[in-house]
């Protein structure tokens, strides 16, 4: 869909004392100006695009960020850097707003950790690829979107917007026929647009997928010259205005700039695993998660007989 600079709007709202929140696509923010730079107070969205399959719509972990002044209103827990009794640098739970830690009436979130695995996947995806790898992925997604747009426009197809990151709104004359043709190719197009269909590309999109989309939208088998379209886009693409390109660095912490091979990543994850306190190392405190543990004896086939 179309890209917008919301700086003026956010400044107007701020002048009236309004706290603003922005829903954003996490992959697009690798290339696009951050909502914080535009003046947003809170930014949130889905982290699905960082290594988590679509899974027919979920589940996916969210990401949530806010300005420092609002940190005490954030749900969940915030981990801070501290020192232990021996003076060593340590990580500790700096703020606890879950009902298991403070009085329920003061809590900002309940006890729910069911999406921590998904959050870990997204986090390790960022660790593995780092800022360079993520930029390469985001640029490829945008480049393929540019190629698709250029090919459609070359064939006289109208696009509803002049700017985009990964999503095109394509105007079609016979929408039911286009959707039927798409389904015959196993392609799911966005259908809730008047006189148009929506197409979103992602990290898994291939050149073959582009050719399939051309065939669907042009109602015929085409032999588009992808390389020629690519050269055209490289020379004259304006789908992301210069004013909306990201100017600030991303993922500057060393953890996002150190583990970019399989062995490096595997060893890093193993070091983290060894720091975990589990039953194979020691007794662990009783808690809701501990109570879900099954005894080894329960795996005997006639245990419940």
UniProtKB/TrEMBL annotation:
SUPFAM superfamilies: PLP-dependent transferases. The keyword 4Fe-4S does not apply. Pfam families: GDC-P. It comes from the Bacteria. It catalyses: N(6)-[(R)-lipoyl]-L-lysyl-[glycine-cleavage complex H protein] + glycine + H(+) = N(6)-[(R)-S(8)-aminomethyldihydrolipoyl]-L-lysyl-[glycine-cleavage complex H protein] + CO2. Its EC number is 1.4.4.2. Residues 3-217 form the Glycine cleavage system P-protein N-terminal domain. One of its GO terms (molecular function) is pyridoxal phosphate binding. The glycine cleavage system catalyzes the degradation of glycine. The P protein binds the alpha-amino group of glycine through its pyridoxal phosphate cofactor; CO(2) is released and the remaining methylamine moiety is then transferred to the lipoamide cofactor of the H protein. PANTHER family: GLYCINE DEHYDROGENASE (DECARBOXYLATING), GLYCINE DEHYDROGENASE, DECARBOXYLATING. This is glycine dehydrogenase (aminomethyl-transferring). The gene is gcvP_3.
